[in-house]
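[stage:ingest] chain + small molecule (adenosine monophosphate)
[stage:ingest] validated
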Amino acid sequence: MTDCLFCKMVSGEIQPDVVYEDEDVLAFRDVNPQAPTHVLVIPKTHIATTNDLDADNVQLVSKCYLAAQQIAADAGIAERGYRMVMNCNPEAGQSVYHIHLHLLGGRPMSWPPG
Ligand code: AMP
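[stage:predict] done
[stage:export] tokens:
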């Protein structure tokens, strides 16, 4: 999608602070971090929201989770704990319409989220 911020990161038009990349997944530091570790893990394929997942593309979400698991281990937060979350649509606070897995850690977190 030419108009999508995260697709521009995949294409190289915009260069984020990349922490992990493979053929299907790109992970980079959130520009407005909400925790000491705050990384966004995205599929390189454009999928607007989790409502658009189906049997043909859902394996990309699995790959995002496995990448986030490795990033958490590399960041040294795997044993302490971390949060992984995908926001969907306005009431959940989604602001970029290309699915992304937030990996947050490095501080205690409360539940339920705001
Ligand atoms: P969400 O609100 O769940 O859609 O999350 C979008 C995230 O993208 C927010 O946490 C933003 O801080 C982050 N974000 C927006 N623009 C950039 C950017 N240029 N580089 C890195 N992260 C960004």
